[in-house]
Amino acid sequence: MEKKIFIYDATLREGAQNARVAFTTEDKIAIARKLDALGVDYIEGGWPLKGVNDGDFDFFRAFKNKPLKIAKLAAFGSTRRVGNKVQNDATLNSLLDAQTPVVTIFGKSWDMHVLKVLNTTPDENIRIISESVAYLKSKKREVIYDAEHFFDGYKANPEYAMKCLLAAQSAGADCITLCDTNGGTTVAEMEKISRIARNSVKIRLGAHMHNDSGLAVANSLVAVDSGFDDVQGTMNGWGERCGNADLASLIPILSLKYGCLTIPPQNMVKLTETSHYLYERVNVTPVDSQPFVGKNAFAHKAGVHANAVMKVSYAYEHMNPELVGNERLMLMSTQAGVSTLIHKAHEIGVRLAKDDPKTKELIVKIKKLESEGYEFEGADASLRLFILKNTSKVKEFFKLIGYKVIVEDYDGRLSDEAAIKIEVDGAVEHCVSEGNGPVNALDNALRKALKKFYKKIEDVRLVDYKVRVIEGAEGTSAKVKVFIESSDNKDVWTTVGVSENIIEASWLALKDSVEYKLLKEK
């Protein structure tokens, strides 16, 4: 029988502490429903403290009439304050007011924190833990106790750290989570301490790992190997400083490699889409090299690798990317050859053969473009368009008549305006639009001109824009390479343009992006 590992998602609280991440209440509600659809067991919604985090009450209130289908909502907070009675403690009562089925509280396990941060005695801290857990249990809540700084506390004073865990257990906690809050515990230390804790604690144990040493996922797996039942983490590893254990890695490792039950097996294919949805929702650029769900997690650039993978997929892949909803990418570059081109063409329904003169002609054209500065391994959509335009009859969605971009400075305030004239099936459209920068103005003008003919173009938005100088020795007259990443909330694609003129390079990448979207819809 599969061992059940409970997945506790802390993205909405821990993830919000990431320097690049900011959630609105609407974001949190939408993300919670997305995580629920993935099938995690717990979703930590935030710290509802009246007068401080009132937005978290709005978040929890949103699920009163439309509850989650799978996940349990957890409100997060601390044990009672020093000197308070639990009945009068603002934090504990705010947690109860959130009316969630689960309450998670953290408390001190490191005697240094007890003495120098709480400014109280070790015995008083034990009473704080015990009374806080018991009070919440008396209100019929499922209580998860997070033993903050447990591993550092154990290394400093093992007897006291264990005493803190046993106090939570005796008070009725349903689960005790051991936290590597500073993220400095090594794998060997983790294994030793986790096994000792597992042998002493009789209730469910969870793992909450930070990634300051790059070991959050590894240490979470060590805890599971030691007999723990829960893992806490965040989607995409978001969190304070270096982040938390990445659930986008932990879930497939535990399910597909350990054979444990985490999320419902049929939902594993939603993992990549869920990860990317979160990036899109908060407008953070995805990490292409992210394991399992990154765009390049199953990408092959070298010709030898690409050729081998096409013959035997597991020659250079540790698993089938489709299991987590990802896909294999064959990247065109100066290292890749005929085999990669044939595979890329096959992905979009174009049949090429090795000895076909057309194939050799395409390779020559690609090499020429690369010599001019084009780089297709980072611009898959431009490569697909190139193949289609050179092998099939592709509808010309629009013809550019001309464009103009104006940047003006009014007393230190910049104004950007673009005018564009296009032709679609004989009809001429002329539009003017402003923007936050010349490229954004050009993007807005193009989409404004096209939406009369192609309604779906309104779905597209530019999510990333990169400029690279190709030959720095030429100074400001050097060629530039522009990458534009676009999204329609379903897919993300990247296009490239190259020119000595940054506006023209941007236009070429922008044109490819729009054409790719229209071709995709067609």
Description:
An eight-stranded parallel barrel has the order 1-2-3-4-5-6-7-8, surrounded by eight helices. It is elongated. The longest helix has 20 residues, at 502-521. The chain folds into three domains: 6-263, Aldolase class I (TIM Barrel), CATH 3.20.20.70; 299-391, no CATH class; 399-521, Double Stranded RNA Binding Domain (2-Layer Sandwich). The protein is built from 17 helices and 16 strands. It starts with 5 loop residues before the first strand and ends with a helix. Helix 1 packs across helix 2 (54-61), helix 8 (187-200) runs parallel beside helix 9 and helix 16 packs parallel to helix 17 (502-521). The chain is 38% helix and 21% strand. The chain is α/β, with parallel strands linked by helices. The mean pLDDT is 91.
Fill in the CATH topology of the largest domain: TIM Barrel
- Ranges where pLDDT stays below 50 over 5 or more residues in a row are none
| Helix-and-strand structural type | alpha/beta
Q: How many E strands?
A: 16
Strand order of the largest sheet: 1-2-3-4-5-6-7-8
Count of alpha and pi helical runs: 17
What spatial form do the alpha-carbon principal axes imply? elongated
Overall pLDDT, averaged? 91
Sheet with the most strands? 8 strands, parallel, barrel
**Distance, first to last CA:** 47 Å
The CATH top-level class label of the largest domain: Alpha Beta
Radius of gyration: 27 Å
Strand residue percentage? 15-25%
Q: CATH superfamily name of the largest domain?
A: Aldolase class I
The percentage helix is 25-40%
Q: What is the CATH architecture descriptor of the largest domain?
A: Alpha-Beta Barrel
Number of domains: 3
